[in-house]
Amino acid sequence: MGFSGAEEVARPICKPSLELSLVVAPLTYESIAEALTPGSFLHSYVRWGARQTDAPLAFHLACALSLGAAIAPPEMCVRPGRGVPVYAPMWNLIVAKSGIGRKSTCIRLQNQLLRAVDPNLLGHQPDSPEGMAESLSQQPTQLLSYSEFGEMLAKSRMGSRLEGLRILWTALYDCQPYQRRLSKSTTLIEHPRLSLLGGISEPYLARYTTDEDWTGGFFSRMCVWVGASEHTPPDEGPDPGAFDDLVVHLKRVQGRKMIAPSGLTNDARKLLHFWADAKDRQAKDPSTSEWLRGCFTRGQEQVCKGAMISAMLEGRALDTTWQLDVEDIRVGIVVAESSIASVVWIVENLCASPYQRRRQELIGMLSKGPMALPAMARKMKLPRRDLMSTL
């Protein structure tokens, strides 16, 4: 599967050699092509985005999935066979170098399309955890969009105004009823359906995340996309009618009653369980980094979300009872494998940066007991100013 006439929108680069695999971003057109059945909404959206910017094509796929997650009804979910329902909302994080990755451009294009479909689905960035809960109590289904997610990470550090927001989001991820009681009021969210779409530069990701973010479940809930730009938009520019076609398609899907899948076909279930069991074994392997275990164990959720959203966008969820089939699961596996490849790249590169190494050394010293700043600076052989920036 893939683009018909792919040369119009993608000029595939050679796969990196083993020696270069740790310095070259992992996702190319070939990484996502199997999810892009010609004529499908995902295919049409990626094609539309590729005619406007030279951003990695994988970023457009992330944005298209976020659109589907945003318009999905609250009851849209599937039970993959292990008892816990998986709902449609997704957290997609685009990671790129500032200025040249075009992550903000991709997110702006997605926001433009979502506003044209239903502006109420695009939420406002919260100023506090309480504000987030209040917003969801009024609009339970919404997509929060961050062109620079690093700003949110910086503002939600310990001791900051938004401290607690990451924990709140994590509690909302599973889409279960949520109640927040304050001294004078109680906020109840019966059906929270929060999706996230963010772009972040590599230095911000390295600086404003902690071990707990990766090992405690916050980032393991995200579908992460690290891509390589590999095409040039055609000289004729955007197709003026493509935007309207995408809006009409989304409104047509959103405007009709949608039915959640009743389950998976036998072959689809076998394929999902075969893939998920392999990832569980990788997560349990003693050689696997603690930072990677979460993305392996939650891989099944990403497969189900990608499969369900793709099928829903094709109109499979309208009018009649249906099941996820093998082709749906294959789309979901492309999504999950893309995220896993991106997280592996991040752990092997950004987590090995000088900043991260200094921070890990500092955490190791502090775990043995309190230490004065001058003593820490002497032991780490750092100016106090650099030490403070590491805290």
Could you please describe the fold and organization of this structure?
The N terminus is likely disordered. Strands 4-7-3-8 form a four-stranded parallel beta sheet. A two-stranded antiparallel sheet has the order 1-2. Strands 5-6 form a two-stranded antiparallel sheet. The chain has 391 residues and is of the alpha/beta class. The protein is globular. The protein is built from 17 helices and eight strands. α2 crosses α3. It is 48% helix and 9% strand.
Oligomer: single chain
The average pLDDT is 85
Order of helices and strands: HHHEEEHHEHHEEEHHEHHHHHHHH
Helix content: 40-55%
Radius of gyration of CA atoms, rounded to a whole number: 21 Å
Number of helices: 17
Provide a short characterization of the protein structure.
This protein is an alpha/beta fold. It has helices spanning 29-32, 41-50, 57-71, 103-117, 129-138, 149-155, 165-172, 202-207, 211-215, 242-254, 266-284, 290-297, 299-313, 326-349, 354-366, 373-380, 384-390; strands spanning 77-78, 86-87, 91-96, 141-146, 178-181, 186-189, 193-201, 223-226. A hairpin with a 4-residue loop joins strand 5 and strand 6 (186-189).
List the helices and strands and how they pair.
Blueprint: H1 29-32, H2 41-50, H3 57-71, E1 77-78, E2 86-87, E3 91-96, H4 103-117, H5 129-138, E4 141-146, H6 149-155, H7 165-172, E5 178-181, E6 186-189, E7 193-201, H8 202-207, H9 211-215, E8 223-226, H10 242-254, H11 266-284, H12 290-297, H13 299-313, H14 326-349, H15 354-366, H16 373-380, H17 384-390
Parallel strand pairs: 3-7, 3-8, 4-7
Antiparallel strand pairs: 1-2, 5-6
Helix pairs in contact: 2-3, 2-10, 3-4, 4-10, 11-12, 11-14, 12-14, 13-14
